[in-house]
Amino acid sequence: MGAIKLGRNATINRNTGTYGSPVWSNVALAKDVTLNLDKTEADASSRFSGWTLTVGALKNATVEFEVIEDTTDANWTALKNSFINGTEIDIAVLNGPSATSGSNGVRAYWEVMSFNRNEPLTGIITRTVTMKPTWPTDGNMPVEMTV
Predict the structure, then answer these.
(1) CATH class as words, domain 7-146
(2) I need a labelling partner for 97 at 20 to 30 A (CA). Which of 23, 24, 60, 105 fits?
């Protein structure tokens, strides 16, 4: 049996350096992260096969998570600014720490598409965040990444 990974050891990492020389800052206030990966489908059917055939076309990625609201936290502020200003953030969503060899996931320029505030009566204020890959101003498209 392979190594089991705990969700609490997975990370969302914001690059505060350059694309070529990233400096990863863990979005430590995040919790309950889901990285959704799927593909659109293209119809590849023909008279020759006699079957409906499908091939994967474009890949989709969405990251959904809650983040504790802390307006003094630089990563929280970057997420808020991405939502408010429509700006991109270079983020790697990994199944382990960014400094641990073998951690892997998806790196992309993301835009925050929702930043909903949750105010539970008996809890702390959080934001429910949804991010999707966006057009990169430097041409670096989403990639699968292994540290």
Answers:
(1) mainly beta
(2) 60
